[in-house]
Amino acid sequence: MDLRKDRRVQYTKKILREALFSLLNERELSEITITELCKTADVNRNTFYRHYNIPLDILLEIEDDVFEKLSAVLRKSTNMDDVILLSCQLLESDKQMSKIVFTKADGSGILSRILRSVRNNFPVENQIELTDEVKPFAEMAYQFGEKGSIAVIKNWIENDFSIPAESIAQMISYLVNKLNKL
């Protein structure tokens, strides 16, 4: 019984996500009502409220899912270049989700969370000797690399993944590795 219930919950959440994706192609999240979301998903309002309070909750859940998938990539790899490549491939593998998260919800928060995890797993201190004079510069270089990587990824997604994930990853890896050697 529980497995069937889980499948129903999974199915309900899936169709609500798909309905939200569909509506987000037409307008902004703030313009989407629960009524039209339920109508598009062909579920009643009680079903919606059983899982969510507002449409934003669906988007936040999707962001958490993306973060978990990216975190899993991070846990699998011991090499920064592999992490970057696998992350780009993951984003490219679900283009619709990536577009929604990174163009409609400003997914830079997800990327910032992931990059903080990357930083914890691949600390700059292990790559160069940090003196007191170099530490502020290293921090600024890291921030530059983080924000620059986010900008590259967002631009890539907004431009409909026009460049292969491998090329984007190679570009980001090159820039990050150059920054780490400064």
Automatic annotation (TrEMBL):
Keywords: DNA-binding. One of its GO terms (molecular function) is DNA binding. Residues 10-70 form the HTH tetR-type domain. It comes from the Bacteria. InterPro entries: Homeodomain-like_sf, HTH-type_Tx_Regulator, HTH_TetR, TetR_C_Firmicutes. SUPFAM superfamilies: Homeodomain-like. Residues 33-52 bind DNA. It holds the Pfam family TetR_C_8. This is HTH tetR-type domain-containing protein.
